[in-house]
Amino acid sequence: MRIVVANSPGGPSDIIARIVAAAMQERMGGTVFVENKGGGGSNIGMGLVARAEPDGTTILLATSAYVVNPSLYDTLPYDPFKDFSPICELATSPNVFAVKPDLGVSTMKEFVALAKQNPAKFNVSTPPVGTTPQLEAEVLKVREGLSGMATIVFAGGGEALQALLGGTVQLSSGVLAPAHPYIKSGTIKGLAVTGERRWHDLPDIPTMAEAGFPDFVFETYTALLAPAGTSPEFVRKLETETLAILAKPETREKLMRTGFEVQARTGKQHMERVAREVPMFRDIITKAGIKVKS
């Protein structure tokens, strides 16, 4: 069985897919491998699985782009309500705004003040269009009058983070998971997390609300889905097995260490999230004035 990740290697979806794939293979036998299909704001990978044979050999590791993209694109290669059978929800991760220490700023307010002096000299790296880190970067720019700051979009979160590490960009907007070890080591500085509360082992990094940016909560979720028409028995089996994997203390600890908070919700509960968040992100995108893509 292949787990298709609709982003390039090294990002949060790739990290969690490989953890889950290894645990699935150990628990269920056979071969479970991860295949990265990035590009098109994650639409290429999601469309690939939507059209795959529903024979149990291909499933999708979806992220929040699954619920954001219906409001960002005129046309999509998938229907979030019709083209998939939900298996379960895995985990969520807050996003984080980060800089290199040598930029000389310690807070989000300091970064915004510095960037406002000459926005054209600043840029921000994000994962693909439609991810919550990309969306929150655009919301920040609109709210703070930083339209002159360029957004540099990469095929995956790992590449976006490497742009900050390499000095190509001054600000990174990304999921916490891949940035976590670099923040812990001091290689980069987290200015604010976008969750509702501070991350447990990064207590010095405030939330965006605490940093003076109210109503600024974004997170990235991950979930497994199979192509519509996949055997209901197979989907139920995968749901049961995956939830059992997520219930293990060692799995929860491993995911927590890499910046994820386990959710372990059923396929039905995941579709309740989809029904809630598709219109929610449509409202956010409209209010932020973000242009719909063809």
Structural class: alpha/beta
Shape: globular
The biggest sheet amounts to:
10 strands, mixed
Count of helical regions: 10
Average of per-residue pLDDT values: 94
Task: Flag low-confidence runs.
Answer: none
Describe the structure in your own words.
The chain has helices at 12-28, 43-50, 65-72, 108-117, 132-144, 157-165, 176-185, 232-247, 249-257, 267-288, and strands spanning 2-5, 33-36, 58-62, 84-99, 123-126, 150-153, 171-175, 189-193, 219-227, 261-266. It is an alpha/beta fold. Helix 3 packs across helix 10.
What is shown here, in short?
This protein has 294 residues and is of the alpha/beta class. Helices cover 41% and strands 21% of the residues.
Please outline the helices and strands.
Layout: E1 2-5, H1 12-28, E2 33-36, H2 43-50, E3 58-62, H3 65-72, E4 84-99, H4 108-117, E5 123-126, H5 132-144, E6 150-153, H6 157-165, E7 171-175, H7 176-185, E8 189-193, E9 219-227, H8 232-247, H9 249-257, E10 261-266, H10 267-288
